[in-house]
Amino acid sequence: MTAARDPVSVKTLSFNQLLVASEWPLALDSYQRGFVWDKPKMTQLASDLAEYQKKSRQSLPYYMGTLLLHADDKKQLRFIIDGQQRITALSVLHRQLTGSLPKRQALSYSAHSSRFIRQAAKALAECAELPDTSVFDRLLFTVIVVDSADQAFTFFDTQNNRGVRLHATDLLKAFHLRAIDQAGGHERQRHGLEQYCAERWEDIQRHPAVLSPGQDFAPNLFNRFLWRARRWRGSQVPNGRHDSILEEFQTNTWPLGYDARSSLDTLPVYACRHNRMATTLTLKADGERELQGSRLLLSQNPANLPMALRQPIHQGIGFFLFADKYAALLQSLMNEPTAEVRLLAFRSLYTQLLRSNQEYLREIFLLASLLYVDQFDYEQLMAFALRLEFLLGAIRLDKQQVRQETAANFFRDGDLNLLDVIAQSHHPRQVLEYLYQQQRQCAEPYRDEQVVIGKGVQGRYKQAVLNYFHPEAGMGCERLADKPSWVESVIKRDWS
Fold first, then answer.
1. Of the four, 268, 386, 411, 473, which is 20 to 30 A from 362 by CA?
2. What contacts 39, CB < 8 A, 6 or more positions away?
3. Cα dihedral angle (313, 316, 319, 325), rounded to 10 degrees?
4. Which of 316, 27, 324 minimizes the C-alpha distance to 193?
5. 8 A C-beta contact, residue 424 and residue 377
6. What percent of the chain has pLDDT over 70?
7. Where exactly are the structural domains of the chain?
8. Dihedral sign computed on CA atoms, order 334, 397, 405, 372
9. The GmrSD restriction endonucleases N-terminal domain covers which part of the protein (predicted)?
10. E strand map for 58-103
């Protein structure tokens, strides 16, 4: 009879001991981040270890921090919860020094991670000096092993990886993949859906930046767009913190069974621009999507998924399809190649007028534009963009410094919250009429401005406005008092 294992064990193990401490191999679950160590980080690791071995006093080991493992009895694997970047890097080093990977590891990676691993191997091959194989007996870890999935995810939620706190989006990915894994149904079906969702998530992470640059697009998507679109209502515009994002997209989501129409691969859908007839959506393991009620097959473009920004989010595939839809919609709005005239004009306005403006004003513009396109597609998009830009330009001319709280104040302090106006409107005209009324109230900064063209942030913005509206403003124009009429002229001439 096998003795019961402690639910949590803590040991100090070298890298070599770690691999033979159990009969079960080390593995990576699909919720894990991809491998992202670059050439400088790999080179630094090799240099540090080579320098360590040169020291005459090697009685002290080289400490590599804490590893968190989940021992899965069912799969007979030890899943790395925290520490996979270090273990992967050391495995690459092991192969460089010995010609083979360490035994008892079953680590598998996406194509994206594999590219980083090949770059890491190349970096080591080009190193002038490497440690020898004895170093693997001197690399010491504190190894925490838990035997419960609940404990594993509790640790995962709080554990720091070398002092870098996990993004809320990493935890959301883990939570919703776990929801798929723990659902009923055939194991092969669960695994197929889990793998599909994990791969789609990695695609989201690699999307080009919108607003904030970075290697991972997902935090930008959730922090600056999706959370605000859902939670900024009326005068309630709280700050988006780590815990509040987890609350919205984890705690407040609906589990399987909460709606009788939901199951492992099927979720309810709600009335919106992309759905007038269907009641449920089924995601198959190969990624094909089918609507029930209308019996229509959906296109493979996730931007066309029948979802709305403020709808309930169902755990598992519901969360991943929601994220996939709005990542794709934002990319189609700002980055993807297009021949759509209205979209090209929108991007031109953004490039010429918003790019010369402060980032906190740009995020207002893009957040509201995402809601608008989700609600009305590209119908009267330029009229919307011109009227909204007018309001943001008034803020720029009125304030020498635009602060971080500007976005929250804009939505909170208006006669109505613009996000609510868009979400609750049935026709673009309702939104445009609201913006027009706001526009009439914001004419004073334009009428009274005395900004020197090209001088400072306000002067550069003024120059951009004169350049953009050159046909309406005329040669030699140096004032913005007539901008209201310029806006109306462009809307009437080009977009009526």
1. 473
2. 119, 120, 122, 123
3. -120
4. 316
5. no
6. 92
7. 8-165, 197-333, 338-494
8. negative
9. 28-176
10. 62-72, 77-82
